[in-house]
Amino acid sequence: MNNKGMFKHRDINTFLVNHPHVEKQKKKPFEYLNLSYSKQFDYSPKQPYSTKANEIQYKSQQEPSFLRQNTLPNYEPTKCSSLKNGIIKAYAANTNQGLVREYNEDRVSIILNIIKPQSRENEPWPKCSYFGVYDGHGGSACADFLRDNLHQFVVKEPEFPWNPINAITKGFEAAEKCFLQIAQDSFNKGIPERSGSCAIVVLIIGDNCYVANVGDSRAILSSENGKKVIDLSKDHKPELEKERIIKGGGQVYQTHGVNGEGQPILGPIRVNPGRLSVSRTFGDIEAKLEKFGGNPKIVIAEPEIKQFKIINEHDFIVLGSDGIFDTMSSKDVINGIWRDVQYNQNSNDLHNMMSNAVESVIKESLLRKTTDNVTLLIIAFSITPLREQEVRVKTMSYIDKIVNFPLSSNTSNLRTRKYNDENNPFFMNAQKLKQKSKLMQINLEDNLHYRLIG
Fold this sequence. Notes:
Blueprint: H1 12-17, E1 41-44, H2 64-69, E2 78-81, E3 90-96, E4 106-111, E5 128-137, H3 141-155, H4 164-188, E6 196-205, E7 208-214, E8 218-223, E9 228-231, H5 242-247, E10 251-258, E11 264-272, E12 282-283, H6 285-288, E13 304-309, E14 314-320, H7 322-325, H8 330-343, H9 350-367, E15 374-380
Antiparallel strand pairs: 1-2, 2-3, 3-15, 4-5, 5-6, 6-7, 6-12, 7-13, 8-9, 8-14, 10-11, 14-15
């Protein structure tokens, strides 16, 4: 495909007509809005829009005809920041059930400021921000649980924030145990709870960034105005962790089938027990507990963590569910964002630029006929032509002594198309910020106070 025309001259109308939808989901991704956060978030695009399913008018400066004419089920405008927050200059996020699925099990969590607990009021406390994308499957319960609780398990660790890697590792382990117990209790009451979820998390402490991954969602770093594309996570696929799976007593296999024309087709590579096409998840009780035929050594919730210091050359981080990367490579996504930024650079509004870029990437993944839910979140630090010359926020010296995890410099290839049954609405959490002085002291009562969008 010619990258130059990736976002132009595509006839999605025909594609949408050929994929009719049955509207079963009553709750919209952004149905509920806490208006007290109106200053923290802006609607984007900034124009009136209808909330009636399949009658939404889209906005795009790239393909206005496409967005004026086509519709998506349960579409809601992208949410973006309105103010910068320390090292984070802007962010934007959106999710959609896509063209094939009749439900959305992706979730998003954004917490701009993790406030110091009262019990630690005598300690110094750096600026901390948390972003998470959770790709659920088999139901939304596990993704809902992670959205609402995973960050709390991390923050409650005594080693947070001065040893973030240990805090993340132990917090993820505690969250996994808690949800498995919840699922088991549900089974004991006669209510099967089989859901699971992937998680890709970015924790920013001062100017140090920590990326934790469980599953096949992905984090990517754009650097030097998009000249460098760096994968910050490794997809946890059965074929890539085959040695560990077999050593633990599991199996890796590939499904087969026949299409409507009688031709044989290959399905995704899966792991057994669990029959999942991903090798690390939260939840999935039937894959992990022996009483259900599972094996705790096979599908695990142990995160892989990478750490780096944010510098002036770093543009932005992208978090996306696998529905994006099933049809687009990491480089495709970054290049698409930069094309959108350059097209809209005269707007001189980084927040709207990021919002438009999110919608462009989601649109392109749908044009390429992804079959999954799609979610994308961009965290922008400094982007030319709006790059700011500034002194980066410095962290306490002892944070810098933490062992660095090497960055992966490779750019992943396109994924194999999935035809599985994995993978409602989208919740975004945001910390309400109150500025009282140059030190930006924050009331304790606002600690972990979230904005509900879905």
